[in-house]
Amino acid sequence: MYLPIICSVDSLLAAACMTFAGCPKAYHGRAIVGFMAFDMLAGFAGASLDVAVPATATIPALSLAVVALICARRWNPLYLAIPILLSIDSLAMGAADTSVSLWSLTVDGLWSGTLAWAGFALAGWTLRSLTQITYKEKSHGCSHPLV
User: Fold this and answer.
1) DSSP 8
2) In which region does residue 104 sit, left (phi positive, over 0), alpha (psi from -120 to 50) or beta (all else)?
3) Within 13 Å, how many C-alpha atoms sit on residue 15's CB side?
4) Angle 102-140/88-96 helices, nearest 10 degrees?
5) Euclidean distance between CA atoms 126 and 112, whole angstroms
6) Rounded CA gap, 17 and 89, in Å?
7) Residues 120, 14 contacting (CB under 8 angstroms)
8) Which of 4, 2, 1 has its CA nearest to residue 36?
């Protein structure tokens, strides 16, 4: 049985990248649910397949997710395609593991959602901190960013 957290780390990184790219907060909750649902469903679909999905299948999906992230700045609903594209790793892991159970897939979905929430929270905190540092720099007239 694979460790669910392996397929969930991409949710943390993707959520942080979505925040840095300017994803509106209205899409954060939807994306978290998307990461949870699609990772769980992809793991279930992978376990149902009779053919192993190569790990290299994640490379085109990752490339498309980067393109969606770039294009989503103009058309915000594209942010919701990122959880779908990044669920390919769960599909590959589900196909590679023969002992996948409903419990492990549920844990995988919960981990994905939790890590996506953490990614949004950490990136938001980082952006707020950087904004405060920039504001302090401008208000004090100092050139040093930590003063």
Assistant:
1) T
2) alpha
3) 31
4) 150
5) 21
6) 18
7) no
8) 4
Measured distance CA(14)–CA(116) in Å, rounded: 7
Q: Among 57, 53, 37, 48, which residue's Cα sits nearest to residue 98?
A: 48
60 residue type, one letter: P
pLDDT in tens, 41-93: 988 888 888 777 777 878 888 899 999 999 998 999 999 999 999 888 888 88
Q: Rounded to whole angstroms, what are the CA distances from 3 to 91, 97, 104?
A: 14, 10, 8
Between CA 87 and CA 31 the distance in angstroms is 12
Single pTM value for the model: 0.81
What is the pLDDT at residue 58? 81
**Which residue reads 């905190």 in tokens?**
125
What's the rounded Cα separation, in Å, for the pair 115 and 133?
27
DSSP string, 26-71: GGHHHHHHHHHHHHHHHHHHHHH-SSPPPGGGHHHHHHHHHHHHHH
Rounded to whole angstroms, the Cα distance separating 97 from 116 reads 24
